[in-house]
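Table 4 source record.
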Amino acid sequence: MNQSLRSNFQSFHANQAFDALEIAVLIPCYNEAEAIAKVVKDFQAALPTATIYVYDNNSTDKTVIRAQAAGAIVRREPRQGKGHVVRRMFADVEADVYLMVDGDDTYDATAAPEMVRLMTTECLDLVNGTRSAVSTTAYRPGHKLGNMMLSGLVQKIFGTGATDMLSGYRVFSNRFVKSFPIMSRGFEIETELTVHALELQMPLDEVASSFRDRPEGSESKLNSIRDGVRILRTILRLARHERPLWFFSLVAGLLAIAALGLAAPVITEYFATGLVPRLPTAVLSASLMIIACLSGAVGMVLDLVTRARQEAKRMQYLSIPGVATKARPQPTSQKPKKLMVGQ
């Protein structure tokens, strides 16, 4: 009985929170005519109060026509690449909660209410929809292995976070979106989203969602090798920008090991004969050690600069109201009772 009452109470307040929130569903698209209408209708059914936006990225098929016919607000971004589209969506759309999902109909719309509910009840800034394949062809082993390796690398460098870093199904708070300086142009935007949350130590969580095959006639735009290299390059770039002490210390360590390896036979021969016959090797070894020391010093200086920049980003992030402020039911205003003299 108590459990039932508690469940009804939570459901009542969840509905109040949903009604108080302005939810935007953002769908970046490029040639998704076979899937986009179903995606729009599925999310209209899952989140009836949400506004559905489809951002077309130079599609050459009937994506725009079918999205409009399904009832979505369609806008266009001429610069090619998912990063450009996400930058435009985040800049243009104003909402309390943003749900971003790929337009290929591979993600389960029925998980959306739980993702939004989790964000509002737990006061989160990011909820990641982790992929759980319903068939062996939906999530290919190569893609799964690459995702695990890249996600693991990000966790090692930036801290524990999303286990499915490359998922295209996420829910963001307003202060996440409006504090996010997007720099990526393509598919590597997923990495930048995750690192932004980890860097500012935002509260985040995950919700499992089924992941299915694309509809027949729809083709994937993902190139495993090309996009994998781009993502790895983005991780290294972000490590250099956000973890300069770690990055330049690693470079310094590698250079120092190389310098010592080259210097070892030179030093051994000098102590044995008193001569330095390998002068070029000695000069190269000394040069590498000097560069290693400079690299370490650069890392320490940049670390101080990065900390100051992170503090500024954190203050900007905190200046934006969290989702809990809008989701919390407002109490009814009551006039204070007048006290009579002598009471």
